[in-house]
């Protein structure tokens, strides 16, 4: 470590500044070597071969610990070369690890995306302690916001899908990968092609690796983006990996949250994939669905899909004001009504109001502004399947979280939380992919939802130990 400094001073070029720079550089390189993360691409060493003898890597150090007879230097591999103790496998192994060939092959992959700049820091490789609890905006993250913004721009320019976290379920490796795009970018028309290319490359990579099921997160399966995944399945008909949007289980979770005595619901986002499936399912149960949509053509198309005797239960409206005439459930059947004695006083008041006034059910598949929310009567409960979730402005209403399920109890290695969910809880589309994998289903789940499979998928989820939150 001291040889470069000694040489500089002997040549009359030493200084106090050089000492500090040398010590900091040495310590940084040593820390990088012990980080167990391959930061430097193998392409850098291939482009500039002499760098192999100036920079050492985690792989270089791991070979020293594994074989114990080579790679002794903590600074420059050059000295191992001069001393004849350089391990010849160092660079090939580093290349394999950087390319992911040395990792265990996952059998299930959840392909996520970044929501916003603040949540981009909610990952294990940035701040592990913060990622281990549900995400929320924290003051401690604000100083890092400019750094995260720079990384967002860098990822937009030059990046590819990367590994975020992993866990084991019944001995099988499950991984979460992320498309390096933030939520707002999905709504920029010019970014559409690039995002689809990122998703397509991730699917093809998973196919090459031998992944069995790949599940798409909310915006990665957007209808306007790729038709709920149909684009990739049609383009690559020989895929071995099953592409799944997981919306069937999402619909099942939402439907099973609706109180059993509900007679009428108000539905926004009514002509989306989920909105359509929910409307068709509920009308078969003789529940009146007031569907908010400006498109009579889309509404009539969905209405015609329902059996003739149930079509009368689907009603189109074009204004939020129509929700004021929506019927409420005659009695509130949620557990909160039976547990009001143990709640704090504000919650007791809310509970009393819900029981006496009844509850109006809103199924929200389109983001609601404060002005739009004000049309909901007091006591309304908002069930949500919109990303990002709506903000709760009404104190006289209740807001459900995004559809989610708790993974089975035998899950192992879960060290981080999925967005705002507590540890062990995942979004329903993630859980839908898990069920698809555990059941060994061989079909792609893309495009429109098959309403007849909602109950099938729900029962399969419960059978495998997934539980509603």
TrEMBL record:
<dbReference type="GO" id="GO:0016020">
    <property type="term" value="C:membrane"/>
</dbReference>
<dbReference type="InterPro" id="IPR036291">
    <property type="entry name" value="NAD(P)-bd_dom_sf"/>
</dbReference>
<dbReference type="InterPro" id="IPR021940">
    <property type="entry name" value="CER1-like_C"/>
</dbReference>
<dbReference type="InterPro" id="IPR050307">
    <property type="entry name" value="Sterol_Desaturase_Related"/>
</dbReference>
<protein>
    <recommendedName>
        <fullName>Very-long-chain aldehyde decarbonylase CER1-like C-terminal domain-containing protein</fullName>
    </recommendedName>
</protein>
<keyword id="KW-0812">Transmembrane</keyword>
<feature type="domain" description="Very-long-chain aldehyde decarbonylase CER1-like C-terminal">
    <location>
        <begin position="358"/>
        <end position="468"/>
    </location>
</feature>
<keyword id="KW-0472">Membrane</keyword>
<dbReference type="Pfam" id="PF12076">
    <property type="entry name" value="CER1-like_C"/>
</dbReference>
<feature type="transmembrane region" description="Helical">
    <location>
        <begin position="6"/>
        <end position="26"/>
    </location>
</feature>
<keyword id="KW-1133">Transmembrane helix</keyword>
<feature type="domain" description="Very-long-chain aldehyde decarbonylase CER1-like C-terminal">
    <location>
        <begin position="265"/>
        <end position="322"/>
    </location>
</feature>
């Amino acid at each position: 470590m001291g040889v470069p400094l000694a040489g500089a001073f002997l040549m009359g070029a030493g200084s106090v500044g050089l000492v500090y720079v040398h010590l900091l550089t040495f310590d940084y390189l040593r820390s990088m070597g012990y980080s167990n993360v391959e930061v430097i691409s193998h392409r850098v060493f291939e482009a500039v071969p002499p760098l192999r003898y100036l920079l050492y890597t985690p792989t270089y150090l791991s070979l020293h610990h594994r074989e114990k007879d080579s790679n002794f230097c903590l600074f420059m591999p050059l000295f191992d070369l001069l001393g004849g103790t350089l391990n010849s496998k160092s660079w090939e192994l580093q290349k394999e690890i950087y390319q992911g060939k040395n990792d265990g092959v996952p059998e299930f992959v959840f392909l996520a995306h970044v929501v916003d700049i603040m949540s981009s820091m909610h990952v294990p490789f940035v701040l592990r302690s913060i990622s281990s609890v549900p995400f929320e905006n924290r003051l401690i993250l604000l100083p890092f916001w400019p750094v995260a913004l720079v990384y967002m721009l860098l990822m937009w320019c030059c990046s590819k899908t990367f590994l975020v976290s992993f866990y084991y379920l019944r001995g099988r490796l499950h991984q979460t990968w992320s498309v390096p795009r933030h939520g707002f970018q999905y709504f920029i028309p010019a970014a559409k092609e690039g995002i689809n290319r990122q998703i397509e490359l991730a699917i093809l990579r998973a196919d090459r690796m031998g992944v069995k099921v790949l599940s798409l997160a909310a915006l990665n399966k957007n209808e306007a983006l790729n038709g709920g995944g149909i684009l990739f399945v049609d383009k690559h008909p020989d895929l071995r990996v099953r592409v799944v949007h997981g919306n069937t289980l999402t619909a099942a979770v939402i439907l099973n949250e609706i109180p059993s005595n509900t007679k009428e619901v108000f539905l926004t986002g009514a002509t989306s994939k989920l909105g359509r499936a929910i409307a068709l399912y509920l009308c078969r149960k003789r529940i009146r669905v007031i569907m908010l949509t400006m498109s009579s053509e889309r509404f009539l198309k969905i209405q015609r899909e329902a059996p003739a005797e149930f079509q009368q239960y689907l009603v189109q409206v074009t204004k939020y004001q129509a929700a004021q005439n929506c019927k409420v459930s005659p009695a509130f059947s949620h557990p909160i009504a039976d547990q009001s004695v143990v709640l704090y006083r504000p919650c007791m008041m809310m509970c009393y109001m819900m029981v006496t006034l009844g509850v109006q059910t809103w199924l929200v598949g389109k983001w609601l502004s404060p002005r739009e929310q004000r049309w909901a009567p007091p006591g309304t409960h908002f069930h949500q399947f919109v990303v990002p979730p709506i903000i709760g402005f009404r104190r006289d209403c209740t807001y459900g979280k995004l559809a989610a399920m708790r993974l089975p109890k035998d899950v192992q290695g879960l060290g981080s939380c999925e967005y705002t969910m507590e540890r062990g809880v995942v979004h329903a589309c993630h859980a839908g992919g898990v069920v698809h994998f555990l059941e060994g289903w061989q079909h792609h789940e893309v495009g429109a939802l098959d309403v007849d499979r909602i109950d099938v998928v729900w029962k399969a989820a419960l059978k495998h130990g997934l539980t509603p939150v």
